[in-house]
Amino acid sequence: GAGVSQSPSNKVTEKGKDVELRCDPISGHTALYWYRQRLGQGLEFLIYFQGNSAPDKSGLPSDRFSAERTGESVSTLTIQRTQQEDSAVYLCASSPTGEQFFGPGTRLTVL
Amino acid sequence: GQQLNQSPQSMFIQEGEDVSMNCTSSSIFNTWLWYKQDPGEGPVLLIALYKAGELTSNGRLTAQFGTTRKDSFLNISASIPSDVGIYFCAGIPGAGSWGKLQFGAGTQVVVTP
Which of A22, A78, B47, B69 could make an S-S bridge to B63, C-beta 3.0–4.6 Å? Predict the structure, then answer.
């Protein structure tokens, strides 16, 4: 497909477990973003990758959160030792220069 | 945390009515954006505003960038059932790049026939 894809679409995990969320951006988009959306709220910026520059990690809520990106392609968001407050939809977006195109998100539920 | 105050939180309207929602901030934004999010989907950009006072239309949608640079509004005219969804304002503060969008909490729009 031509859009941003994310996997899995849903993830249920137990408190304390680690999870990995994947984002496949639109081919050729140099910028990639991760956001968190809690129920009934807007999107909260987490991290931003732009080309080969060092990522902007200023939105990561704790050191349990990390993300990597392979070149200008796939990105993985990892949450270690998950907590119940991590339950949310995690959205990825990619961009060529300006407008961000969003994926459908991964709904994470921590029991 | 979020710096954008979006209102109303929800709206229940009849088909054919107009819809208005707005977003305010305590700080200046150089770009205002309006997105729509359908259930199970990511937000889709509706309108982007780049200059104070700018008024931009996209079909039945009209948005304005407030002259103080601290607010924006979105109007939907003659609503139809497919307008149902959550509408978010977003902004880029100061001289920031597109990288760090700040979002409002959203306005849930429900359209009844």
Answer: B47
